[in-house]
Structure prediction request, 307 residues.
Amino acid sequence: MTSASLKSDTILRQIDAHNLTEKIVAIDEEQICFFIFQLGGYLFAFGGSQTREILPYTTITWIPGATALIPGVINVRGDVAAVLDVKQILSINETSPKTADNFVVMVRAGDGRTGILVDTIVDVVEVPVSETTQLLPTLDERFKRFALNQFEYRRNMVTVLDASLLIEKATS
Amino acid sequence: MVMDIDQNELQLLIISLGDNRYGIDIDQIAYLTNFDTTESSVGFEQLLAADPVMNCPYSKMLLIKQQLQTPILIPEPDEVTTFQVSDIHKLPAVLTVASGKKGIWGLLPQKSGVIILIDFYKNQLFKRLASSIDN
Prediction:
């Protein structure tokens, strides 16, 4: 019993080795950072590379000529950024009053002076590439043309949006 | 009005309409007179296609250089102030086309909100009204 390994020790070593292998796989696999936010009853995300900064809701100044998709501009530390109402772009009719609970997500797309108005910030997560999926056929038609892919977050599907496409729509 | 020489300062007539403040280059203004409705006058909020401000208290009339035939009705101006040109910001790209048609050409961030700069020579409705009177 002393010279030979105990079976239980062997099994434990096997488990350790297996866990180590799993960890190595997890480290090796490319992770993508996503910033998850809520619009109405839906969860959306921007890739971390498209998100520059999150700002608390502040007074929006309406600019003549702006469409309903662009409620106006905000003062960002002495610079000016346009704010997009993504709910309007995505035809989400659930209106919620703009309150201090809202946020403006500054995105890197376009001229870098565009913010996206969101209802609530949910989380920032790192997702392995293998866990992102192509767009599911069940995805709402309204969102398809602005969506890149999807992933699961706490048993809910999150749709990853392309900020460039949203800006393009607001400009057209 | 074409300006070839760089300048550091811009003197603006500031007027408020609803919650917004607008800045008009003093150099564009020929006269600022008391309110007097004429057939050819146009309300400032019409030029901007803004939501009509209830009981907009027009009290003055702006006559723009070279377009004297189309007076613009405005509320009592807030002030005339000089700003540094370096403080003026261009419109964010998503607004350039749509707001450019209204003559909006720049923004001046303030402690609260921004002053919206308007160039009447670039406002499409103003240009159309002025040219129709010319004809």
Remarks:
- Chain A has a mean pLDDT of 86.
- The interface with chain B takes residues 59, 61-67, 70, 73, 75, 78-82, 84, 110-111, 113-114, 167, 170-171 of chain A (CB under 8 Å).
- DSSP finds four helices and eleven strands in chain A.
